[in-house]
């Protein structure tokens, strides 16, 4: 069951859709103040309108940021309102994958840079900006959204798997570095979750984007946000170090039972 968790300042990257958007909604509806961060400011403002029109007492602030850019992150942190600078909960959610090419034909220029700069450097940099304040206040919670692909690697996913393995390692190291504080760190490792992720991976090709979810009921963004909020609402002495959540009928990145499609 959930415990009361309200009046916390929650910064969420990649909040314009998917898991980030769902996290914003569940934290806000429980009376917390959310900072919506992402590149698509128009979408962030629409989400803000929805949240503000609800019955929640939580505040909402929108910040356009590209986590692959250190300059953009610094501008975002420096632009926070004074009453929202002391971040209690950080959800490092922004991430992406581009294509499914083998190493022999991988774009080791633009595509590889985009994945590593967003998935790895973005997590490092945002955390680096927020962590000192948490250490000073001796409180805080950091959620790093990784993936089961960070430990269950698959062919044709080298860049994405490597980036999420880095996030998993980062989470473990960070937890050890703040062990003397009351700061908690959870590594979040979802399996198949149907969001815009697959559509981005396949450059907007909706047919390819739907294929990974054929024959199985995947997780939703709300499922993962629900798990994150559950962890955040635990008593202060309880630290859930890892969430590994997969859809029923999924056992790993590659072991999935799919219901056969009947011929019509």
Automatic annotation (TrEMBL):
> What CDD domains would the database entry show?
SDR_c5 (cd05346)
Q: Which PROSITE patterns match?
A: ADH_SHORT
What the entry lists under Pfam families is as follows: adh_short
Kindly give the Gene3D superfamilies that the UniProt entry links to this protein. Answer: NAD(P)-binding Rossmann-like Domain
Statement: the UniProt record of this protein carries the keyword Endoplasmic reticulum: no
Q: Which UniProt keywords apply?
A: Oxidoreductase
Q: Which GO terms describe its molecular function?
A: oxidoreductase activity, acting on the CH-OH group of donors, NAD or NADP as acceptor
Query: What family is reported?
Result: Belongs to the short-chain dehydrogenases/reductases (SDR) family.
Give the protein's recorded name: Uncharacterized protein
Task: Give the classification, highest ranks.
Answer: Eukaryota, Amoebozoa, Evosea, Eumycetozoa, Dictyostelia
């Amino acid at each position: 069951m959930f415990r009361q968790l309200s009046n916390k300042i929650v910064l969420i990257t990649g909040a314009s859709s998917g898991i980030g958007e769902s996290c914003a909604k569940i934290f806000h509806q429980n009376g917390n103040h959310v900072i919506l961060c992402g590149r698509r400011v128009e979408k962030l403002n629409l989400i803000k309108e929805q949240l503000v029109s609800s019955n929640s007492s939580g505040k909402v602030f929108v910040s356009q940021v590209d986590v692959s850019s250190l300059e953009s992150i610094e501008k975002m942190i420096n632009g926070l309102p004074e009453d929202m600078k002391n971040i209690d909960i950080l959800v490092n959610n922004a991430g992406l994958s581009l294509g499914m090419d083998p190493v022999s034909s991988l774009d080791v220029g633009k595509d590889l840079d985009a994945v590593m700069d967003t998935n790895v450097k973005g997590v490092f940099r945002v955390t680096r900006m927020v962590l000192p304040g948490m250490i000073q206040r001796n409180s805080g919670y950091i959620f790093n959204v990784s993936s089961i692909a960070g430990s269950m690697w698959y062919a044709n996913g080298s860049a994405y798997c490597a980036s999420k393995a880095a996030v998993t390692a980062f989470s473990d190291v960070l937890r050890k570095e703040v062990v003397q504080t009351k700061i908690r760190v959870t590594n979040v490792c979802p399996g198949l979750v149907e969001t815009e992720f697959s559509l981005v991976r396949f450059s907007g090709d909706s047919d390819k984007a739907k294929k990974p979810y054929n024959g199985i009921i995947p997780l939703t963004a709300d499922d993962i946000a629900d798990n994150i909020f559950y962890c955040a609402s635990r008593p202060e002495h309880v630290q859930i170090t890892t969430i590994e959540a997969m859809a029923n009928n999924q056992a790993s990145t590659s072991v999935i039972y799919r219901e056969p499609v009947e011929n019509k």
